[in-house]
Design goal:
By secondary structure, this protein is an alpha/beta fold. It is about 30% helix and about 25% strand. The protein contains 13 helices and 19 strands. Strand 6, helix 9 and strand 7 form a beta-alpha-beta unit. The longest helix has 20 residues. The structure holds ligand G3I.
């Protein structure tokens, strides 16, 4: 087994600020333990991959270090979608996609191509055009030929058709289905096979993770494609899940597809929760990540699992589900969460378990000055445990619309009313009974009511 440097053993200096709002003078500290597992090695030992979606423009510094050292498959979050690669007709922009494929090769990772035919993130020139069925079919197959052809031999799996179903298992009335009927799926698969004969060709959808009407629709489609000799190699189950709601039938569902003679994969796993994240929610999330990974491990044709972003700072959830987030295995400051250890344990890691919270802490919050629309606050974090801690995180909900604008001695992120503050590189350690402080400026209007409760966690 190859040795992969664990990114978090390195210094986190140079870390790029990401996320909805990331402020403060601090460089986030790296708190992973020296004995932390390497997910890609554990997965490889099980004959699987463990992957992540990424954003090409973020592939530097700590983000790149973790992506390249912990994962052995990569999926572009947006960079291979039609609107990204052909924003105007005949004008291609492969820069983001190239960057990810090059990164993958430099780090010995597989690439999941995502995605050739989808109803969403299509270029305006395509959706606004009026096309005959023949023209649209040709546009679709030409697109597949251009994109799959460009990366021929460099993509292990292609999501050829993404999200073809409605919730009730009928076909979604996408641009393609409404003009071409269901035959567009077979045509797309054939075009992809011709363009890149070595890539494994997948259909991919969400809310198909367990047994149900939508996964029945996918099942019947795959069965019929196989019967017609259409090239179909696998089915992707996106796995956009809600805390505590991993379908109990997930393994049985993956297995029934495998029994049709196709590979399966969990392609976009995230498990969202209502913020703020508490120890109890993070423990549930760990169990959930573990359960999904267990389902893949238990099905021999399950090729791997891909997290839809490995860090909470690179997740679509807070943008789309107000007040929800913390859906990935690493927090915004690149600290592995319990979920990360849940994945590792499912993959056979016996390294001693999640270090988990190692102490307890309390929070004091004081508004030290306030003027017409602004204020300054000071927050004290006290280690009330009997041993020193190596890091801390504080979260609260603002009751009256306050916004944090700049912080010092902590890294502060805000999403809606939820604020999370994590230690800076230099003040994570607090001795037993000791305390540290950080401060910030914020804005308010109407009332500047202090948060009612604080969540405080230490490591
Ligand atoms: O790039 C622009 C930026 O220039 C602009 O300032 C900003 C303002 O909103 O938007 C940016 O584009 C966003 C893009 O992500 C890149 O960040 C789009 O608004 C946003 O809609 C887009 O969201 C993506 C979403 O697909 C679109 O449906 C998410 O990042 C991406 O993670 C998500 O991925 C999908 C899978 O492809 C299919 N399955 C579901 C999954 C989650 O929605």
């Amino acid at each position: 087994m190859r040795l992969h440097p664990h990114a978090l053993r390195r210094t986190a200096l140079g870390l790029a600020a990401t996320g909805a709002l990331l402020i403060g003078l601090a460089t986030p500290s790296a708190l992973a333990q020296a004995a932390d597992p390497v997910l890609r090695d554990l997965a490889e030992a099980k004959g699987k991959y463990y992957g992540t979606a990424v954003t090409a423009s973020k592939l530097t510094g700590t983000y790149a270090d973790i992506a390249g050292s912990q994962f052995n498959s990569i999926t572009p979050g947006n960079e291979m979608k039609w609107e990204s690669v052909e924003p105007s007709r005949g004008t291609y922009n492969w820069s983001g996609a190239d960057r990810i494929v090059d990164f993958a090769e430099a780090h010995d990772m597989e690439v999941r191509g995502h995605t050739l035919v989808w109803h969403s993130q299509l270029p305006g020139w395509l959706t606004n055009g009026s096309w005959t069925a023949d023209q649209l079919r040709t546009l679709m197959t030409d697109h597949i030929t251009a994109e799959a052809g460009r990366y021929k031999g460099r993509i292990s799996h292609w999501d050829v058709v993404n999200e073809p179903f409605n919730e009730d298992g009928t076909f979604r009335q996408s641009l393609f289905h409404s003009k071409l009927g269901p035959s567009y799926i077979a045509d797309a698969l054939r075009a992809a096979r011709a363009a890149d004969p070595d890539a494994k060709l997948y259909l991919n959808d969400y809310n198909t993770d367990g047994l149900g009407a939508k996964s029945d629709g996918m099942y019947n489609l795959v069965k019929s494609l196989k019967a017609q000799g259409v090239p179909i190699d696998g089915v992707g189950f996106q796995g956009h899940l809600i805390l505590g709601q991993v379908p109990s039938t997930m393994k049985a569902n993956l297995q029934r597809f495998a029994d049709l003679g196709v590979d399966v994969a969990v392609t976009e796993l995230d498990i969202r929760m209502t913020l703020p994240a508490t120890d109890a929610k993070l423990a549930q999330q760990k169990a959930d990540y573990r359960a999904v990974t267990d389902a893949c491990v238990a099905v021999s044709r399950c090729k791997g699992v891909t997290a839809w972003g490995f860090t909470d700072s690179d997740s679509w959830i807070p943008d789309v589900f107000e007040g929800q987030g913390a859906a990935t295995p690493y927090d915004e400051n690149y600290r592995p969460k319990p979920a990360y250890y849940g994945i590792a344990e499912s993959l056979g890691w016996t390294g001693g378990g999640d270090p988990g919270p190692t102490g307890s802490c309390t929070v004091g919050y004081t508004v030290t000055s306030q003027w017409n629309t602004g204020f300054t606050a000071n927050v004290t974090v006290k280690n009330t445990g009997s041993s020193p801690v190596g890091g801390w995180q504080v979260a609260w909900t603002y009751p009256s619309g306050q916004r944090v604008t700049s912080a010092w001695n902590a890294t502060v992120t805000q999403s809606g009313a939820q604020v999370t503050a994590a230690n800076a590189a230099y003040n994570g350690t607090i001795g037993a009974g000791g305390s540290v402080s950080f401060g910030f400026n914020g804005t308010w209007s109407g009332a500047n009511t202090a948060p009612a409760t604080f969540t405080c966690t230490t490591r």
